[in-house]
Design goal:
α3 links the parallel β3 and β4 (102-112). With 306 residues, this protein is of the alpha/beta class. α3 (84-101) packs across α4 (153-163) and α5 (208-214) packs antiparallel against α6. Helices cover 28% and strands 19% of the residues. The radius of gyration is 19 Å and the shape is globular. It has helices at 27-35, 45-48, 84-101, 153-163, 208-214, 241-251, 267-273, 286-304; strands spanning 19-22, 38-42, 57-62, 102-112, 167-176, 192-199, 222-225, 257-260, 278-283. Strands 1-2-9-8-3-4-6-5-7 form a 9-stranded mixed sheet, sandwiched between helices.
């Protein structure tokens, strides 16, 4: 990527998928990006999705920003809404755009974690043992809930998407085998998040054979695997490539386009680059766009060098 977030479509000179990223849009740059095998577009998913063609994407694998967990420093960012209802509405509005770009037999794999009502405390310091426990920002307690209540964000969102017309096909419990212990003594420590499978229509592309080929244990709805680690800020809560791979294998074939409207550090893009799938990602944080593109080019260069 060039300086100041400029477009850079330089791909490797050897065999392998071409990576293209851009933060500042022009019609020519957009066409170049979308023609690449791996494209990352900077900006807000709610508006950038309008640039994609209708029924052009086979599946979506994504993990939207969790409510009130992390401030990514972007204006109007999803996740920093003062009310949980506003957060859910914004994510559902984004997926209204996803519905247009998704093929009629397409699917959505959505990872989401939960939070507790904070009692209106605005941050949480680490406990001296694990820095990752610290939370620099925390949401206010939603109306109708009490301090220390589990908010139920994943299911609030899942039911809202169901009401919006999506088929809620299954809830998968992602058991995080390397989950940190929590500094609480009045409830069990959390060690799971949810992965929801949605479909656009009653019938959709899904191969249980390809899913099971990844690992026989994926036949059931509890998947045990370690969480990933961000290659940008070291945060250990990102969803891992091992969680993404079975979703892509079960829902796509080589050459299909996979979309992640909350691209982050490019986890889904890396899986696509190594499995023969095309990828379109959208990311609101310019630092993440630049870093993800650098890492993807390095990955392609290392995997496909002659």
């Amino acid at each position: 990527m060039g300086r100041r977030g400029q477009h850079n479509s330089e791909g490797p000179t050897h065999r392998g998928p071409r990576v293209c990223s851009l933060s500042r849009l022009t019609p020519v740059r957009l066409r170049q990006a979308l023609a690449a095998e791996i494209a990352i577009i900077g900006g807000d998913a709610r508006t950038r999705l309008e640039l994609l063609g209708s029924r052009s994407v086979q599946t979506v694998v994504t993990s939207p920003p969790y409510w009130g967990v992390r401030d990514y420093g972007a204006l109007r960012q999803i996740g920093m809404e003062p009310r949980i209802d506003s957060y859910v509405e914004n994510v559902v509005a984004t997926f209204d755009q996803v519905r247009r770009v998704l093929r009629d037999d397409g699917t959505v794999w959505l990872n989401m974690g939960d939070v507790y009502a904070s009692g209106n405390r605005r941050y949480r310091a680490d406990d001296g043992k694990y820095a990752a426990r610290a939370m620099p920002t925390r949401p206010r307690t939603p109306v109708g809930l009490k301090p220390k209540d589990l908010v139920g964000v994943p299911w609030r969102l899942a039911f809202a998407l169901q009401r919006a017309g999506w088929y809620l096909r299954t809830d998968i419990v992602w058991h995080k085998t390397n989950a940190l212990p929590e500094s609480v003594a009045d409830r069990p420590w959390r060690s799971h998040e949810y992965l929801f499978l949605f479909s656009k229509n009653k019938h959709y592309r899904f191969s249980s054979r390809k899913l099971l080929a990844t690992a026989p244990t994926l036949r059931r709805s509890v998947w045990s695997m370690a969480s990933g680690r961000s290659r940008i800020n070291g945060h250990s809560a990102v969803f891992p490539e091992s969680l993404v791979s079975p979703c892509i294998n079960a829902s796509t074939k080589k050459g299909d386009i996979v979309l992640d409207p909350f691209c982050g550090t490019g986890t889904v893009a890396r899986v696509c680059a190594g499995s023969g799938r095309r990828f379109v990602g959208i990311e609101i944080n310019p630092e993440y766009v630049r870093a993800a593109a650098r890492q993807l080019r390095a990955l392609v260069a290392s995997r496909f060098k002659q």
